[in-house]
Amino acid sequence: MKKKRNKKRISLIIIGLILAAIISLGIYAGCFIANKLNNINIEEIDTSNLSTNEELYEQVSDSITRKEFENIKTFALFGIDSQDSMIGRSDTIIIVSVNYNNKSVKMISIPRDTYVSVSGHGKTKINHAYAYGGASLALKTINENFGLDITEYVSIDFTGLIHIINKIGGIEMNITKDEMNYINEHSYECGYSITGRATKKVTSYGTVLLDGEQAITHSRNRTTGEGSDFARAEHQRDVLQKIMDKFTKMGTSKLLDMSDTILKEVKTNINVMDYVGKLTDVVLNSSTYFGNITSIQIPSTEYGKGQMINGGYYFVADSEKMKEEMIDYIYKK
């Protein structure tokens, strides 16, 4: 099986932290907000043809009230791998659900090889949808195959994450000897060749401080541990958690110091000013929100498996089960 590209899920959640910090300061500095938000690339899309599930509330009304339902905001995060042979393919797809009722965040990773129907293109991998029709077709594909009503997205091509990790002084990770060897073997191609910095070796295992190039290399590792793309997803979640730990301990000024670089990498159709109240709540209760982040993969290996179809690898799952699990996880658990 071909080596797969790095998923960008590590970097995407940082955007929310920075936007939240910017909005919270808006109470005192409206012009400052405007200048910061000008760095975001706004891309309007036609939301009238996204195949949103208009009956979604009725499907979950036995578990939550209408007000509680409306207090759960869900959007899609797309990590775009510009180094991929198929330019514009969404190498990472994460559904992020922010629950303002209990101040929690859920992150649902959709495997990029998931076999789904893409309007106008038949059955194929879900990550092809973005390349075929941008964010609009990607959102439509998610809604049609998972029974959701998502109309907002954030996309990012974020090789610059390496520089951000370096800027915050690296992150401490607990790695095995095999993982140390993998980092040392692949860190040039995965990181140092991008930044042009001198290659550094990890000289020990256990709890070690990794720089950005080494951390990104670790997040790509699918050959140690269970030796699968799911194992790599675990590595990525570990890296994400360490970044989150460091960001939540930073002061607002340090976050804003890095905001220009990060926000310039973002493309979105979200009108951030519509979320002033919500984001302010996130800032005021950041320890609660970011202490209640959970993640899951849907569809799971319990009802899905890899298959070769017409010479290509796909992750094939029961379509009704993956719809049910997605809706239950966001709205009923």
Walkthrough of the structure:
The protein has 333 residues and is of the alpha/beta class. It has two domains: 9-159 and 256-331, Nucleotidyltransferase, domain 5 (2-Layer Sandwich), CATH 3.30.420.590; 169-246, Aminopeptidase, CATH 3.40.630.190. Helix content is 45%, strand content 21%. It contains 13 helices and 13 strands. The protein has a seven-stranded mixed sheet, sandwiched between helices. α1 (9-25) runs parallel beside α9 (229-248). It is globular and about 55 Å long. The model is unreliable at 1-9 and 22-30 (pLDDT under 50).
Q: What share of residues is helical?
A: 40-55%
Structural domain tally: 2
- How many beta-strand elements? 13
Element order: H for helix, E for strand: HHEHHEEEEEHEHEHEHHHEHHEEEH
CATH architectural label of the largest domain? 2-Layer Sandwich
If you consult CATH, what is the topology of the largest domain?
A: Nucleotidyltransferase, domain 5
Count, helices: 13
> What's the main sheet like?
7 strands, mixed
Structural class: alpha/beta
CATH class of the largest domain: Alpha Beta
DSSP strand content: 15-25%
C-alpha Rg, in Å? Answer: 20 Å
What is the arithmetic mean of pLDDT? 82
Overall geometry: globular
Strand order of the largest sheet: 1-10-7-2-3-4-11
Distance between the termini: 35 Å
pLDDT < 50 stretches:
1-9, 22-30
